[in-house]
Amino acid sequence: MAARPISPASTEPETRVLLTVDTALAWPPGPEGARWEDAYRRSYEAAGVGVRHQLRILAQYALKACFFVDPMPACAFGIEPVRSMVEPILEAGQEVQLLLQPCWAGESGEPYLAGRDRGAQYELIRRARDLLMEAGAPDPIAFRAGDHAADDDSLRVLADLGFRFDSSHDGQHHPWPSAISLPREQIAPVLHQGVVEVPVTVIGGPLALRICALSLGEIKAAILHAADQRQPIVTIVTGSGELANRAGTAPNKVHAKRFEDLCAFLSKERKRFPTAFFTELDDLPLDRSSAPLPPAGLRRMGRLIERLWSDQVEERGA
């Protein structure tokens, strides 16, 4: 099917959808002398269902997505692998914002951004921002910590550096490593520590709205619930390699189909639930309800059946 042009978001949509893709190279990078292309192949390309595949599906359905790109592999390999991640995304007309995985910085000890002192966080985030821009990305305005491991000091640093948005708060992994001092069930955007926190949407459990973890029925139900509750945004997460198996060597057909089916749903419902970039969120309301979708037995059963099928497919190497 030919790609359709991406149309502007509605001027005053009730509920917008943020499709976010955590885009990073696989860690660890391999033995001494390993080539960055090896990590790139099993994470960014990921068995033909990595970022380039996702960009094609997004173009087919004329949807917008934000790719949070981790530039820290430049610490091990130089800037070239980061350029190779950034350029296809920008060429496809999609958004690049900043992801930070501190493990690439060559430090020992704490793998998370959260828990470090404010000065150390400042240097890491500033360095990552500069590397992302060196790779050709626009000056980022939104941030996500690797493993969603941010705390209040992370947000204070982001405010100091001129960031407007953070999207690290994840109730499923709160209070650690997702350590921002907001309620676990916080899903509505809120001004916190000088930046607008745009949490990952969770449903009862809490469980994050992650494409590899929830059924399509649960994701749709969460979007419809957000509209019923007049919530301004639904934040969905996937990863650059999550449509493949864990080794990045074969497609996970269940996850890949779920991603495309979700895109088809959002395309069909674009007037009700337009996808958006962070650069379009200046008018984001910050005073709305933050009640997640309650758990439901039938939706949970559907997820368990899909997960069982996904595991069987991966075991067969299909």
Q: How would you describe this structure to a colleague?
A:
With 318 residues, the chain is of the alpha/beta class. It has 9 helices and 10 strands. The strands form 2 sheets. An 8-stranded mixed beta sheet has the order 6-7-5-4-3-2-1-10.
Write the layout of secondary structure elements.
Blueprint: E1 16-23, H1 36-45, H2 51-60, E2 66-69, H3 74-77, H4 80-91, E3 95-100, H5 118-134, E4 142-145, H6 152-160, E5 165-166, E6 190-192, E7 195-197, E8 202-203, E9 207-208, H7 216-228, E10 233-239, H8 253-268, H9 297-315
Parallel strand pairs: 1-2, 1-10, 2-3, 3-4, 4-5, 5-7
Antiparallel strand pairs: 6-7, 8-9
Low-confidence stretches: 1-5, 7-11
Give a short account of the largest sheet: 8 strands, mixed
Overall mean pLDDT stands at: 89
Distance between the termini: 25 Å
Q: What would the principal axes of the Cα set say about the shape?
A: globular
Q: Provide the gyration radius in Å.
A: 18 Å
- Number of H/I helices: 9
> Portion of residues in helices?
25-40%
Q: How many extended strands?
A: 10
Structural class: alpha/beta
Provide the succession of SSEs: EHHEHHEHEHEEEEEHEHH
Q: In what range is the share of β-strand residues?
A: 5-15%
Strand arrangement within the widest β-sheet reads 6-7-5-4-3-2-1-10
